[in-house]
Amino acid sequence: MSQEMFRMFELAQQGFACSQILLIMGLEAQGKSNTELVRAMTGLAGGMGFSGDTCGALTGGACLMGLFAGKGSPEEQAHDEFDLMVSELVDWFKQRMGEEFGGITCGAILGDDLPYKAVSVGCGNIVSATYDKAKEIMLKYGIVPAEAKA
C-alpha cells in the first residue's frame, strides 16, 4: 500500500468522505490545511448530500484541480487550460467507472447501500485512482501538485 493510499485510508477511518479526502490530500501536498474548505466539501459526499447523484470522487477531483489551477482572487486567472483538464478527468471517469459500474453516480456505484457504503473499500479504490489521474493530468499541463498556486 502506498503512503498516499494509507493516508486516504486513515482519513476515511476518521469519517471523511471521498470529496473531502481529495482536498485534504491536495492541501497536505501544499503543506496547508483549511478546515472551512474541507467542511464545504462535505456537500459533495455521497453524490451531493447523499442524494446518489454524481460521485464525490469525480466532483472532488475537479475541485482538487481547482485548488491548484483555478481562480481564487480578482487578480488571479485560472490556468489557461483548466476547463480542458477537468474535461479530461470527467471523460476518464466516465469511461473507467462508467464501464465498471454502469454509471458515474454514487447511486450506480453503490446501489441501494449508498448511505452505508460511503467509505467502502470500492470507494477507496475510486478515490485513489481519481487522485492519481488528477495529478497525472495536472502534470501534463505543467502544474506540479506539490506546489501551492502563487
Explain this structure to me?
- It comes from Desulforamulus hydrothermalis Lam5 = DSM 18033.
- InterPro entries: CGCAxxGCC_motif, Multihaem_cyt_sf.
- This is C_GCAxxG_C_C family protein.
- The protein has helices at residues 3-13, 18-29, 35-40, 56-69, 82-101, 106-110, 121-140.
- The protein contains 7 helices and no strands.
- Helix content is 59%, strand content 0%.
- The relative contact order is 0.17.
- By secondary structure, it is mainly α.
- The mean pLDDT is 91.
- The chain has one domain (3-140).
Secondary-structure blueprint of this entry?
Blueprint: H1 3-13, H2 18-29, H3 35-40, H4 56-69, H5 82-101, H6 106-110, H7 121-140
Helix pairs in contact: 1-2, 2-4, 2-7, 4-5, 4-7, 5-7
Task: Please describe the structure with a list of short key phrases separated by commas or semicolons.
C_GCAxxG_C_C family protein, 150 residues, mainly alpha, single chain, Multihaem_cyt_sf, 7 helices
SSE order: HHHHHHH
Task: Compute the number of structural domains.
Answer: 1
Helix amount = 55-70%
So what's the overall shape?
Answer: globular
What does the main sheet amount to?
A: none
As residue ranges, the low-confidence spans are: none
| Terminal-residue CA separation | 32 Å
Roughly how many Å is the radius of gyration?
A: 15 Å
What does the average pLDDT come to? Answer: 91
Q: Report the total helices.
A: 7
How many beta-strand elements?
Answer: 0
Structural class estimated from helices and strands: mainly alpha
Strand % is under 5%
